[in-house]
Specification:
Number of helices: 12
Structural class: alpha+beta
Distance between the termini: 68 Å
Strand order of the largest sheet: 2-3-1-4-5
Number of strands: 5
Shape: elongated
Length: 395
Amino acid sequence: MGGAISLLAVNFVVAQIFGAAFLIISVKSRSGRAAAWCAAGFAVASLSAICEAVLPFTPVPKLLAVGAFSSVLAGFCFLRVGLGVFYGVPAKPLALTVFFIGSVIVDLLIYDLPRGTMLHAFFYQMPFFLIQAWSSSVIIRFGRKSHADRILFCLLALSAFYFLVKIYAAIAAGSGATAADYLQSPFALISQALGAMLIVGTGVAMLGVMVKDSIDEARASSEIDVLSGLCNRRGFSSRVAPLLRDLGDHDRGALILADIDRFKLVNDTFGHHTGDEVIREFSRVLADLMPHRAVAGRIGGEEFATFLPRVGLTDARVIANGIRAELAAKRINGLPEGVAVTASFGVSAVAAGESLDAAMRRADNALYAAKAGGRNRVECAESPILVSRPTLKHV
């Protein structure tokens, strides 16, 4: 009994630690609501350890036995809600409530059944299996999955399987003649030890996905230009790099550089607030007109770049002219009626194996030519020099 009590104490402390960790994340991260539900889940589930520890010494063992069952199941239900909030696959409150209340009623009904029988073990463990399987299905239904998400899915699925195995383990190892005898049974030691490992594993995995989300959020924020809502220079380079690597030997991409004409004059004449509005409006035009998978960024004060994967120079020029015409036709707040803002564009093709810097230099030359040619126009750069990729020689 001493070993089982010790493990109950360990499980209680571990669950409280995870509850505190999720509570901290709920304050510090955009995953706040999800983390708060997870914190509540671990805190409530930990109450089962108190119920089970006190159960042998109380005159009302049924109350504490059902309390232990209910607290673990309620904790798992809270975790299901938290995972649903985090992954955007919410649980239906009515369905979850009916499931919980129905499971507690069944536990009350089977309390007086002989323990160590298939009937008792099945109906006792099945709600835990179902809620863990339900939670793991959330990750399956979530579209984009990282390695951290897959690890969490595996642990939740393993936890669900663990409760199926407990049906047979309770019969084979013996779980005590009564609920009060549970802590003296061989099954208690095995169950609490494996439960502790699963609590730690699942808790760490859930913390991992939420911390990773916070890190990704911070990284994304550092790569976004606040005024335009587009990538900044660093964000633009980091997002274009994998698209360049994906270009096949015979593929082409295109790079469009744009510079708002006489932007300093706009600021000096109409004020910086109007200048900011010009930046925002041009950014909206870019975001609306750029093709799927294209990346746009504000790489300088009034200078913008757009990378178009697998788009040829001719099509890129058409797109740039569309952006130019759309901006020139825009009515921008802060500017008098009849005053239009224009931009000049330099377009270059990007060959497979070519660096972004090389393409930027050629597009910049074309942009300079557009400025020199009268502004509010599109110029194309010379074709890129093909870069042959090294081939492996077979011996």
